């Protein structure tokens, strides 16, 4: 019965981690470019009373006798499904239609990746994120430029004084990974490369490497499905209650055994 206590406790601990993940998903349901996570569980080691396939008197044991020792969280999988688009009318807001990530240069010089396309200009006219980090490749828009447009294929153009035709100021690039689910969440809607994600493959939007195209004046909402998260929260609560009930039942059984010796 001591085994039952520890087994049920492992289930309660796993469901607590599950609830923490659901809470984070719901908290970021309004975060642009946020990718929800889903907890994956796995069973722990088994105590073999009788090993399946072990020899018996005249035959071999077909099923055996194994007692499991509980569960644990093995991973939190990043769901890479695309979120809905929200029209903002801001010419520097960009949404990626399809795969790929924007490349961001962090203060330490390393590159991070994001689906949050909420960009702004600094005092030098360089396109930056809300936190002040530069978009890669760096593109500067003159302060006297008007009618800034960004094509679906990443070409940034603007009308300059004294010119009738729009001038091209640069071309954006996106990065993609063989395993986007292996990226490391670094906060601020940023991801960083890992050995699991593989090396980034950069290309212009709509290129042959599989990256998507851009939508100017839109932001990609979080891909959190609030209804699904509430259902998962209820299931996590019920699973937690079931495991706590096992703890109570095992405790009652101990109480009865201790009462037998009085």
From TrEMBL:
Top-level division of the source organism's lineage: Bacteria
Domain Flagellar hook protein FlgE/F/G-like D1 residues, every copy: 95-158
Keywords carried by this UniProt record: Bacterial flagellum, Cell projection, Cilium, Flagellum
Domain Flagellar basal-body/hook protein C-terminal: 216-259
Xref: SUPFAM superfamilies: Flagellar hook protein flgE (SSF117143)
GO biological process: bacterial-type flagellum-dependent swarming motility
Tagged with keyword tRNA processing: no
Domain Flagellar basal body rod protein N-terminal: 5-35
Bias (Polar residues): 194-206
Pfam families from the UniProt entry: Flg_bb_rod, Flg_bbr_C, LlgE_F_G_D1
InterPro entries: Flag_bb_rod_N, Flagellar_basal_body_rod_CS, Flagellar_FlgE/F/G, Flg_bb/hook_C_dom, FlgE/F/G-like, FlgG_G_neg, LlgE_F_G-like_D1
Annotated region (Disordered), positions in chain: 194-213
Protein location: Bacterial flagellum basal body
GO cellular component: bacterial-type flagellum basal body, distal rod
Principal subcellular localisation of the protein: other
Record's subunit section: The basal body constitutes a major portion of the flagellar organelle and consists of four rings (L,P,S, and M) mounted on a central rod. The rod consists of about 26 subunits of FlgG in the distal portion, and FlgB, FlgC and FlgF are thought to build up the proximal portion of the rod with about 6 subunits each.
PANTHER family: FLAGELLAR BASAL-BODY ROD PROTEIN FLGG, FLAGELLAR PROTEIN
Similarity comment: Belongs to the flagella basal body rod proteins family.
Designated name of the protein: Flagellar basal-body rod protein FlgG
């Amino acid at each position: 019965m001591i085994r039952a206590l520890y087994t049920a406790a492992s289930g309660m601990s796993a469901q607590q981690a599950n609830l923490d993940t659901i809470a984070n998903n719901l908290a970021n349901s309004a975060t642009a470019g946020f990718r929800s996570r889903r907890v994956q569980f796995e069973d722990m080691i088994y105590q073999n009373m009788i090993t399946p396939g072990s020899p018996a008197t005249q035959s071999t044991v077909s099923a055996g006798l194994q007692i499991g020792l509980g569960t644990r969280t093995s991973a939190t999988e990043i769901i890479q499904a695309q979120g809905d688009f929200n029209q903002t009318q801001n010419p520097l807001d960009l949404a990626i239609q399809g795969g790929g990530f924007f490349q961001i240069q962090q203060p330490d010089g390393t590159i991070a990746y994001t689906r949050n396309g909420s960009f702004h200009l600094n005092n030098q006219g360089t396109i930056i994120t809300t936190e002040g980090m530069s978009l890669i490749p760096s593109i500067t828009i003159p302060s006297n430029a008007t009618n800034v447009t960004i094509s679906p294929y990443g070409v940034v153009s603007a009308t300059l004084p004294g010119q009738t035709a729009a001038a091209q100021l640069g071309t954006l690039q996106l990065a993609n990974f063989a395993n986007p689910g292996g990226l490391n969440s670094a906060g601020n809607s940023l991801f960083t490369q890992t050995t699991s994600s593989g090396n980034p493959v950069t290309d212009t939007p709509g290129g042959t490497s599989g990256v998507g195209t851009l939508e100017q004046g839109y932001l990609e909402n979080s891909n959190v499905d609030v209804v699904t998260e509430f259902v998962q929260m209820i299931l996590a609560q019920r699973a937690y209650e079931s495991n706590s009930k096992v703890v109570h039942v095992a405790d009652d059984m101990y109480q009865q055994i201790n009462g037998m010796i009085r």
